Amino acid sequence: MIGGDDRIHRSHYAYQIDKSLVGKMVRIAGWVEEIRDIGKLVFLLIRDVSGLVQTVITGKHLQALKDLTRHSIVVISGTIQTGKAKDFDVEVKVDQIEIISRAIQPLPLDPANRMSVLQSERFIEVLTPKIIGAASEGGANLFSVNYFDTKAFLAQSPQLYKEQLILAMDRVFEIAPYFRAEKSHTVRHLSEFVSVDIEAAFLDSKDVMDLAEKVLLTVLDHLIVSVEGGSVSLNKESILELRRPRIERYSYKHCVDILNHEGEQIVYGEDLSDSALRKLGEIYKGFYFITDWPLKLKPFYIHENESDPFLSESFDLQFGYLELISGGRRHHDSCKLRRRIIDQGLDPSRFEDHLRVYEWGMPPHSGWGLGLDRLMMVLTNVQNIREVVLYPRDTQRLHP
Ligand code: ATP
Ligand code: MN
Q1: How far is ligand 2, taken at its centre, from the CA of residue 361, in Å?
Q2: 302 lines ligand 1 (CB under 6 A)
Q3: What is the pTM assigned to this prediction?
Q4: Using one digit for the tens of pLDDT, what is the confidence trace for 34-81?
Q5: Using an 8 Å Cβ cutoff, are 290 and 297 in contact?
Q6: Measured in angstroms, how far is the CA atom of residue 15 from the centroid of ligand 2?
Q7: Residue 63, exposed/middle/buried by CB under 10 A (0-12, 13-18, 19+)?
């Protein structure tokens, strides 16, 4: 029903508003995304779960907009007409507007723009299981749980699921908590942390490194706007200092050479110890990538470097000594993947579900995982990860 005193029911979602409705009455409901006041008329952009609708308000209806704030809830009735805006081929000419719930405070962050970079790059948000039947990456730092008559594990990452999903969805991202039994007590490890993960078909390591850079620089740009607007109280100068035009990329080999030159004794092929990373962090302050790690240091799913198979097509994003992201290209050939699982001393029978997916036509793909809590440490300039998490979990702490 349209019109009358029905205050809350919509006739159409945003996605249903199209040319076939020109001349018809509709009633839409949602959040005020934007108020574009151009004098005699005002364009209100209304967002619902399915998208955006442009509405046009003129004449006596303009009165109703006096105290309207962004993100208030409105219900609007009107007639569909063709529009001139480049983003909307139709719009709603408003006959009746009701402000149902007025937003008093501007939101500290814009939920409509959640991960706008990833969405504009056509990534689809997914949610993968956190209770799993087998280790996703191997390794000893898994928590096990009693699961009815059997044993299950808490997911340490979405790695295998996100790789499987690109087969259907091409590009996916997930923001979710993961669990690792990190026995050593450090200022950068928690047993439960949040990771931002992406995985994408037909991209190589360099492509997803570019994306990581884009995401990070966009986050910093948004943060600068929020700091300037007063909704986030952080030191503006220190945030501006983090925001460089691009993020330098150094190969693992280059880092080993630099470190040895500085008196550290790093054997080419071995991992960079904590003290080596701290030294490197003094040399390269701020964000930088370390690329082309030795293959043997990386998990089984990482692809070798095509020009030097001793190395891998992989990278870490560092902030000083702190690792924020690990990523790289993955194997897409099931035989090679099986071989690598065996080489790393893992039992391939535990990966049969995963390996089967590879037989359905797996495209080349790459991705990364970003530790969100660690990024928060950097943005807020704190040294201990426990300070950026409401209820940190570590070897000593399970309450509150
Ligand atoms: P580290 O060497 O620092 O222990 P990792 O190489 O084991 O990290 P990855 O498996 O590469 O970690 O996970 C991807 C990202 O997730 C890391 O770069 C980091 O930002 C974050 N991360 C991993 N483990 C933890 C943890 N226990 N607590 C907080 N963040 C973590
Ligand atoms: Mn890592």
Answers
A1: 28
A2: no
A3: 0.77
A4: 999 988 899 999 999 889 999 999 999 898 888 899 889 999 999 999
A5: no
A6: 41
A7: exposed
